[in-house]
Give the backbone structure.
Amino acid sequence: MLSFIIPAHNEQDLLPRTLESIHDSAKAVGQSYEIIVANDASTDGTTEAAEKHGARVVYVDHRQISKTRNSGAAEAKGDIFIFVDADTAISPTLVRGVISHIEAGAVGGGAAIGFDGRMPLYGKLLMKPFAFLYRLAGYAYGCFIYSTREAFEAVGGFDDDLFAAEEIAFSRAMRQQGRFVLLSDPVTTSARKLRTYSFFEALMILFRFIIGGGMRSMKSRDKLDLWYGPRRDDTDQI
């Protein structure tokens, strides 16, 4: 069985699109599945949106993406875990790829990404080299990561010490377990962060990562507004 695990904080607007894409994709491949929404201290209608679209809701109060994903996984019953962000839509082709590679012996992996709506110029200029470097390093994007239950448990899940970049640590750990396959088929994720944060703000986060000792700088929520700050208005939001 497939377990789709979605971390969510105040995602009532985009979550329905994500859930519909999961239902459509899992049904198209004829695979039994479940959807778990790990609702992390939401104050909007995230729970109602999740239940209306056939998801099981797990309530947590972490305000930390890695812990929230792990809490969702702790409730999962499937043999394959697929972590999907609440603002990300998937396809049947992608799910078929996940199943195919795991049946062929892969322990997990990720996918390529595409973005919805308007993309600011700096996003267009930066995302291609960023995507190339991520794939070259063998890292899965945080918006879509899959793994076998066995491999997930072997690495201890996502690093609870990290507030961001946990997908990098997870990818590294999984590659020690076996083949970690990055699919060429893309997910469609929201470009809202690129639309609502300036180039300077994004650059400062990267600068902090570089001068702050890499992953060590991600062990505090401080100055990680891109992930944990108040949601900014996005007129292009779907």
Observations:
- The chain has a mean pLDDT of 93.
- The chain has one domain: 2-191.
